[in-house]
Known about the structure:
- This protein is of the alpha+beta class.
- It has a domain at 55-230.
- 46% of the residues lie in helices and 23% in strands.
- It is built from nine helices and ten strands.
- The chain has a six-stranded mixed beta barrel with strand order 2-3-8-5-7-6.
- α8 crosses α9 (277-287).
Amino acid sequence: MIARWFWREWRSPSLLIVWLALSLAVACVLALGNISDRMEKGLSQQSREFMAGDRALRSSREVPQAWLEEAQKRGLKVGKQLTFATMTFAGDTPQLANVKAVDDIYPMYGDLQTNPPGLKPQAGSVLLAPRLMALLNLKTGDTIDVGDATLRIAGEVIQEPDSGFNPFQMAPRLMMNLADVDKTGAVQPGSRVTWRYKFGGNENQLDGYEKWLLPQLKPEQRWYGSGTGRRRAGAIDGTLATVPAAFGASDLAAGSGSGGGSDESLLSQSLRSGGDPQNAGGRASATA
Length: 288
């Protein structure tokens, strides 16, 4: 009975349009689902590289050491950065520089582009932006005075993974090792500095630490994560998911307008009744 009904309905031109619309909708859902997954992964990866970490904490003062120890207990990698502006000297020539002091783990993610390639700020040495080198007429191998410390120029810093864009940052970059900051004497009580802490690990570790940390943050402290990328991908996924439904609705409307209303009605009733055309017909008769 069901086989005969299916064959009779399948040969109906209006029902064929419905089947084609359903097939197209399923194909669109599968294709768009794959696209949204790739977009989510891409956004998460870009967010990670842009921050040079999975999560980041910004503060105007050094955070309690217990916070970092808790992160390490949970299996997270922890990186530290300190940025501040100070005067540098090449002989008697002064130049304001935007100093970025990093630890040995930097960058946790992404690439630090230098000239020569593969350099990292080591204790006793610095990397200078090409503009700072030109302003002070310096070259690799020379020395530069940063506060009370005299440091050797190991090379140029071309691009930082987490540099971002700041139109108000007029001073050129000087990158140094965090271990040399105290030697410079440039950071004193009341100095305008920014601490950045980078955290790396899996999602369970990061989410657990985030729940532990957020209630303790002060108003001047900011927590950054890759959730923005996931929310963007989710919004895109939700928008794209409406496209197949729109296709299906338009095709069904077209089928109904072409005189196949009874067939589509019977099909929809059959689907609601669990796929039994006899039940569908019975309900239709009772309604009539």
